[in-house]
Amino acid sequence: MQTETAEMPKIALKAIRSEAGLSLAQAAEITGVSKAMLGQIERGESSPTLVTLWKLAKGFHLPLTAFLEGAATTPPAVNFPESIRFRTLFAFDPTLGSESFLITLTPGQTHISHPHDAGVVEDIFVTEGTLELQLADTQDGTWTRYSAGAAVRFAADQPHSYRNPTDSPTRFHNTMYYPRV
Ligand code: MN
């Protein structure tokens, strides 16, 4: 397995918030992330979790890679605190309306994703190991298992969770599609 360096993500929150003309308080309101935390992220004092970053994306109605500095030129591999390993494969392209990531789950790891913006669709293609996926619309809490080579597409504007139930790493490609306004 190829090793690659990963770092904490550099987040372009301040530039995005300024461009939107929002105060910290207004940004807190639309994202559900506290004003204090937003300030810490902007000053580089705190690295957001992936869950927090998705809240920012949803609140500002932007793709995730809009917040990752350098994603458009040299997509970084980033490790989010207490979260999954994450590498941008393709930064958001407005003409395609999509962005793609390579995600690694360590053995036993579970990641809960909150609903994305309305109409967002996700594709998953498992490249290594076993992935289990739980969608909110399966009311009985069923986890569906996918092996390497499996592809699944689902409405991601609902709660959804990924987990690796095995003893070896799970890798999958994850493409996000944003509906055109
Ligand atoms: Mn998701």
How would you characterize the overall build of this protein?
The chain contains 4 helices and 10 strands. It has helices at 13-20, 24-31, 35-42, 50-60, and strands at 77-79, 85-93, 98-105, 110-113, 121-128, 130-135, 144-147, 151-155, 160-163, 170-177. It is globular, with a radius of gyration of 16 Å. The termini are far apart. The mean pLDDT is 89. Residues 113, 116, 122, 156, 160 line the site of manganese (II) ion.
Give the averaged pLDDT, no decimals.
89
Helix content: 10-25%
| pLDDT < 50 runs, ≥5 residues | none
Strand order of the largest sheet: 1-2-3-10-5-8
Quantity of strands, as a count: 10
Quote the distance from N terminus to C terminus. Answer: 41 Å
Into which percentage range does the β-strand content fall? Answer: 25-35%
Can you describe this structure in just a few lines?
This protein has 181 residues and is an alpha+beta fold. The chain has helices at residues 13-20, 24-31, 35-42, 50-60, and strands at residues 77-79, 85-93, 98-105, 110-113, 121-128, 130-135, 144-147, 151-155, 160-163, 170-177.
List the helices and strands and how they pair.
Layout lengths: L12 H8 L3 H8 L3 H8 L7 H11 L16 E3 L5 E9 L4 E8 L4 E4 L7 E8 L1 E6 L8 E4 L3 E5 L4 E4 L6 E8 L4
Manganese (II) ion binds next to loops.
Core attributes:
181 residues; 6-stranded antiparallel β-sheet; globular
